[in-house]
Amino acid sequence: MEGNAGADQSCGKLHFSFGFHPLTKALLENSENAGGNAAAIPPSDSPLFVLLINPIQVLPEDDDRIFKAVGEFMAELRSLARERGLLHPYIFINYEGCSDDVLPGYSEASFKRLTETSKRVDPLRIFQWGVLGSFKLQASSGV
C-alpha cells in the first residue's frame, strides 16, 4: 500500500468512506443463543470486524479504475491478514465485491441449510438464475 495512495489522481470528486463493524464475542454468543444465523461464526473466532469500503465517484467512466483500485487494496489487506494468521473466511454478503465468493466463508452445515432452503422455497430456482445479483448458491464452490 505504501506509495500507492493517491497514485491515480485523475478522477474528479472522488471520496471514500470506510465502515468498521465489530463482531464481538458477546454479539456472536447472543446470536448463537438465539438460534444462530446463516454465517455460523463461532464466538471463539471473535473478535472480528467487517470492513466496508465505499468509493463515491461522480463520473461513470471512472468506475472500472476505482473498482480495480479497491480490488487491489482489498487483495493487499487480505494478504497482510493472511500473513499474520488473522484472515477469516467470512465475507459479509451485503458488502461483497463483484469477484468475491462469499458462501465458502459459511460453515458446511450452514451452506447445506441455505441450499436446502433455496430448493424448498424456490424449486424453480427463479431467485438463483432469474434475478440479478452477484452471488448464487449453485455457482458457489461451497465449503
How is the topology of this model organized?
Blueprint (H helix, E strand, L loop, with lengths): L14 E9 L1 H9 L14 E9 L6 H21 L24 H14 L4 H5 L13
Q: How many whole angstroms does the radius of gyration measure?
A: 18 Å
Question: What is the end-to-end distance?
Answer: 31 Å
Q: Which structural class do the helices and strands define?
A: alpha+beta
* Strand element count: 2
Q: What's the shape?
A: globular
Q: What's the number of domains?
A: 2
Task: Give helix % range.
Answer: 25-40%
Question: How would a crystallographer describe the biggest sheet?
Answer: 2 strands, antiparallel
**Low-confidence regions:** 1-7
Q: Helical region count? A: 4
* Quaternary status: single chain
Order of helices and strands: EHEHHH
Mean pLDDT: 81
- Our estimate of the beta-strand percent is 5-15%
Order of the strands making up the biggest sheet: 1-2
Can you tell me about this structure?
By secondary structure, the protein is an alpha+beta fold. It folds into two domains: 1-100, no CATH class; 102-143. It is built from four helices and two strands. A two-stranded antiparallel sheet has the order 1-2. The longest helix has 21 residues, at 63-83. The radius of gyration is 18 Å and the shape is globular. The two termini are 31 Å apart.
Quick recap:
34% of the residues lie in helices and 13% in strands.
List keywords for this structure.
143 residues; alpha+beta; 2 domains; two-stranded antiparallel ribbon; 2 strands; 13% strand; disordered N terminus
